[in-house]
Amino acid sequence: SDKYFKKMFRDKETIVYIALVGNEVVGFQEFSVDKIQKRIFLQTITVSSKHRGKGIARDLIRKVEDYAKKKKIVRISTLVKDWNKSMNGLAHKLGYKKKDKFIFWDKEIS
Q: pTM for the complete prediction?
């Protein structure tokens, strides 16, 4: 939604890499940088359905890894839902290790 993108671009801790094929936006990777812990947290990664399976998500993550090396960031982390087989597979393929188990808590406020 527009509100989400406006917040994302206002947040100085958030960086977004955009994947283009020609002039068409086909995906993006949103991530935040914690300079104190020297950690990047991968947030939203999206690739349009017609461009999936072409290595775009892999390339976006590798760009983040290149950024991390240049900025002397020592760790990249992400949370992936268990049903997201493609992202879990990609993370494993790129050398990410499954870590601690987390409990996700949620409360709807109405």
A: 0.80
